[in-house]
Amino acid sequence: MIVVNDIHKSFGKVRALRGVSFDAPDGKITGLLGPNGAGKSTTLRILYTVLKPDRGAAAIDGIDVVSHGLQAREKIGALPHGAGLYPHLTARENIAYYATLCGIDKAKVEHRVDEIVDLLEISDFAERRTKGFSQGQRTKVALARALVHDPQNIILDEPSNGLDVMATRSLRRLILKLKDDGRCVLFSSHVMQEVAALCDDIVIIANGKVAIDDSADGIRNRTGCDDLEDAFVAAIEKVEPE
Amino acid sequence: MRIFLSVFAKELLDNFRDRRTLASALIMGPLFGPMLFAFVINLSIERSLSSADQTLDLPVIGQQYAPNLMRYLESSNIKVVDGPEDRDAAIAAVKAGRLDVVVLITERFGEQLRDGLPARIEVFADHANSQAERDARRARRALGGYSQELAAMRLVVRGVSPLVLRPINVDDVDVSTPSGRSAIVLGMMSYFFIFAMLMGGMYLAIDTTAGERERGSLEPLLALPVTRAQLMLGKIAATCVFMAVSLMLSLWSFFVALKFMPLQQLGMTPNFGPGVVIAAFFVLAPFVLLGASLMTLVASFTKSYKAAQTWLSVVLIAPTLPIMIVSILTLRPQIEFMFVPSLSQHLLLVDMIKNEPVNMLHVAISVTSTLAIGTIVTWICARLYRREGLLG
């Protein structure tokens, strides 16, 4: 369960977030949708605690991300945008490294890595060094790494970027599976169709503000557009720029 | 502690598999440096040894005016050859470096000698050219010898003992030891060790900061439930290990290289046996922490791998500064110097090579102050690792 309450963030003169609030409940997939530069990544970065908000608060399972960053991170599996692997380590070693850092017992690491390798269907290339992996392979390993400590909340920043159809499909299956396990999945995208196909709730942000926060049908009704893409455009146009 | 160890172990494994890191840590610094040093020293020793007993070809203009002088020169292992036509041609040839030294005897030479006036001889040489200067010095010494011989003969003719010209006999007694003399040549060696040490950790320092960021692996790492200080310290520790291995290898390779340097021929016997190698390691080792944290600090400020490389090459040069200043001013080890990292290591190492008793208080100050500064820089690193700008 992720709760975001009125967060603000500026980088110098650029006001990236101007009061963003939304909830991402357990057992549901929440999509963060918005044009490039809308503040999606900044919001997610604050949630996985690499950035601190200037104002406002956010909590993961009730733990404040600013005052208790370490404890909050224990509840999160994060896949940052363009996450990189260690090219000289094999996929399995990459995952095992994160497992040990997350405090999994040495004796149990191998077993846990086996489980996650099966879950993400990456056993074909798990023993290879990650140098020269395709984008799809890299994303899967990075995701496996993020899920290795079995987090309740999963934050994915544009996970489908650069993936082909097959890879996107298997990613979708995985996200749905995580939802069925009762986890809270929050992911960002700028692709309307993808969000519509997966998400229970859609949070559209533009210019650092929440334009609309509803289900796909709710957004259609409230904007009066049958086509989701038109609805998206209509919603972001309502947000006044700075 | 477990997290620190995991980071440490992973960085070792990761970088051990990276050929570039490995090459710079285990080959570039430790082997290249001493080999270059040995080569240069060998070359300069050979040159200085050979030129003393080699016949010097000396171009002389106006040989016909001083036949006796020519015979004298031949007897002191100098072969007189024909020089350029005139004074201007001689100056031009020396200036252009075609000739190292030219001697000019004027037609009035014989006349001046006969009249008992100081006879004039000109020696053209380029004082800025050290090789040419060596030849010129030999020519001048031979001419001076001839002058003294003539003076002695004139006195004898007048019935005076030539000894009146030598009221004082100066005897120069050299008290330096063969080990002490070797410090002249091997003084800069300490910098090679520090350089090799820094080279060993350089790519690690970049990889664990700017490299991680450029690869995009830093952000997911920071999103893990670990503190940044734990990550930072694990990385610095791994850098330290690579640097220490580099240092060990370069000391050992120097030990081997010295065996191939004919320093004994110059009357130098560096005190650099296995015992000194081990002692030198412990004297230099405290610099590892400082070097690792300093490089990590600098690399974490840079935006990219390339920029980090550029800035770190500045860090590679920085430790030479105090060594250079003290070498130029030829200052003796003092207690204040022991507080300065790199300088204190250099002075202690020179003392060891000279086979002079090493002041244990100096060692204690050097080790403590270098470790203390290293700890402070590490702490600053850990502080800065917490800032948001780290992600670039």
Give me a quick take on this structure.
The complex is a heterodimer of chains A (242) and B (392). Chain A is an alpha/beta fold.
Number of helices of chain B: 16
Question: What's the total number of strands of chain A?
Answer: 10
* Portion of residues within helices of chain B: 55-70%
In the CATH hierarchy, the architecture of the largest domain in chain A is: 3-Layer(aba) Sandwich
Average pLDDT score of chain A: 91
Biggest sheet architecture of chain B: 4 strands, mixed
Which quaternary structure do these chains form? heterodimer
CATH H-level superfamily title of the largest domain in chain A: P-loop containing nucleotide triphosphate hydrolases
Dominant shape of chain B:
elongated
Strand order of the largest sheet of chain B: 2-1-3-4
The CATH top-level class label of the largest domain in chain A: Alpha Beta
End-to-end Cα distance of chain B, whole Å, is 28 Å
What is the count of structural domains of chain B? 2
Elements of chain A, N to C (H/E): EEEHEEHEHHHEHEHEEHH
Which spans of chain A have pLDDT < 50 for at least 5 consecutive residues? none
Task: Give the spatial strand order of the biggest sheet of chain A.
Answer: 6-7-8-3-9-10
Indicate how many domains the architecture of chain A comprises: 2
Structural class of chain A: alpha/beta
Which structural category do the helix and sheet elements of chain B fall into? mainly alpha
Explain what this protein looks like in three dimensions:
The complex is a heterodimer of chains A (242) and B (392). Chain A has 242 residues and is an alpha/beta fold. Chain A folds into 2 domains: 1-75 and 153-242, Rossmann fold; 83-150, no CATH class. Chain A is 38% helix and 26% strand. Chain A is built from 9 helices and 10 strands. Chain A has helices at residues 40-47, 69-74, 91-101, 106-119, 135-147, 165-180, 192-198, 216-223, 228-237, and strands at residues 2-11, 14-24, 28-33, 55-60, 63-64, 76-79, 153-157, 184-189, 201-206, 209-214. In chain A, strands 6-7-8-3-9-10 form a 6-stranded mixed sheet, sandwiched between helices. In chain A, strands 2-1-4-5 form a 4-stranded antiparallel sheet. Chain A starts with a strand and ends in a 5-residue tail after the last helix. The mean pLDDT of chain A is 91. Chain B has 2 domains: 2-38 and 178-391, no CATH class; 55-165, D-Maltodextrin-Binding Protein, domain 2 (3-Layer(aba) Sandwich). Helices cover 67% and strands 5% of the residues of chain B. Chain B has helices spanning 2-16, 19-53, 67-75, 87-96, 109-114, 130-157, 178-186, 189-215, 218-222, 228-258, 274-284, 286-301, 305-317, 320-329, 343-354, 360-385; strands at 56-61, 78-82, 101-105, 121-125. A 4-stranded mixed sheet of chain B has the order 2-1-3-4, with helices on both faces. In chain B, helix 8 runs antiparallel to helix 13. The longest helix of chain B has 35 residues, at 19-53. Chain B is elongated and about 100 Å long. Chains A and B meet through helix 2, strand 6, helix 3 and helix 5 of A and helix 1 and helix 9 of B.
